[in-house]
Design a protein that fits this description.
By secondary structure, this protein is α+β, with helices and mostly antiparallel strands. The protein has 2 domains: 92 residues, Orthogonal Bundle (Cyclin A, domain 1); 157 residues. It contains 10 helices and 9 strands. The strands form 2 sheets. Strands 3, 4, 5, 6, 7, 8 and 9 form a 7-stranded mixed sheet that branches. A two-stranded antiparallel sheet has the order 1-2. The chain is globular. The two termini are 35 Å apart. InterPro entries: HARBI1_dom (IPR027806). This is Transposase DDE domain protein. Pfam families: DDE_Tnp_4. One of its GO terms (molecular function) is metal ion binding.
Length: 279
Amino acid sequence: MTKTKEHAGDTVSLVYQCRLPLSTHTLTYLSDLLRRHLKAIRSRWRALPPGRIAVIVLAVLRHDQRLADMAGGNDISATTIRRWRDELIHLLAAKAPRLDRALKKIARRGGEVVLIDGTLIPTQRRTGKANRPNYSGKHRRHGLHVIALTDERGRLVWISAARPGRTHDITAARRDRILAHLRAAGLGALADLGFIGLADDGDDPVVVTGFKATRARRLAPAEKEANRVLAAGRVPVERGFAHLKNWRILTKLRTDPARATHLFRALLVLTNIEATTDN
């Protein structure tokens, strides 16, 4: 632990070191991305070199470090770190794949199905009428709803735009025209019961969702077994979401919900880089 320059009175700022559990490949990718961007915009000077900037931004995303804390440890302002964070998030989000291209890529590799699921990313509770749609009655908390697609191994291939927390899975899927994109790519999908009714062809469904019991109708043993088989096949998509949520900035979002889509897609790119390194 080291001391930085003194402030008023007898108080001093204490700085500690913390391990960042990411690969050097991720750091190199982000640093090179920033260098190319600086060269493209002809930016001649930054307070820190691209490698240091990349480390700071990765720490903010991975550990959810407060901007003021990172600023004090690097002798720069929190506003500067905020600007660097937003800049790199936009650069990474631009690398995220489009839905149609991601599905066609899986089809070219010989894939037959993708896994689809929705989740709620918790946010700070904000007052006001404009933030009421962000309350999810299912989860009983405020958040943003997103849908993600993974391949059969659980690798994230696409993530949707951020929507209010009260949005239903099937509503979001219809807005993104996921069914039409799946048909265009010649792929099927495995989904949970939240997507029942998405496929409009009962004889040859594109999206398989299993069976749902009601108060008036119990599931037959064969239907229960089919649900168990489907749940086992959908395990990788849960693992894909788990890798995405390893970025602790998603533990409870404090950023503007309007910027959340870029953040989610930037983290998708970083998650896939880490997955490639692990493999």
